[in-house]
Input
Amino acid sequence: MMIVRGELPPGSPVRARDLKEIFGVSHIPIREALRTLEGEGLIKYQSHRGAVPTEISLSELEEVYALRRMIECDAARRSAPNYTDEHLSQLEASLVALETTHAQDRHGEEFFAAHGEFHWLLLQPYAGVYTERLLRQLWAASRRYIHMSIATRPFPTVGHHREIFEAALARDADLVTTRLDDHLRITEDSLKDAWVTRSPA
Output
């Protein structure tokens, strides 16, 4: 999470002994966590330096969002006709939590937890274990760019999520897909603008 939030920037050393002190755990879970992060593409090992967070780039940002649109929009289209009343109630509760936490602290962990829950519930009727595994990796990658953009540009409005929910409430697969695709494209464009702002001329 420190890598995702930008607390450990790309290229900075990820020292196991420092992590042991921070989290108060032994070397074994730290080693396993680093292996997981390497598998998710968040760290890499360099000669004479050990583990470092991977670099971020505009091309990676574009790839992440292209993959998100491809996977999420297809899963949403397949999920929409299968939303039950109970599922829609859960989706609405996650939306309220998202809006509330955004108003309180749009960069806090509670907001991102609610945001992730909303997006997952939108896809859950169709998405299986492999879809979830891929998406959670892409969502973690997305957050690196969102946190990078905080200094120059706020997180895009959460109003898009209510529009998506209204389409879900109608179980309108085409409209859910269109609104989700629009939301992801708007977010990507905002992050690209932030990238240009942060990048030296």
User: Anything to note?
Assistant: The beta strands are 43-46, 50-53. The chain has a mean pLDDT of 84. Residues 173-198 form the longest helix (26 residues). The two ends are 30 Å apart (CA to CA).
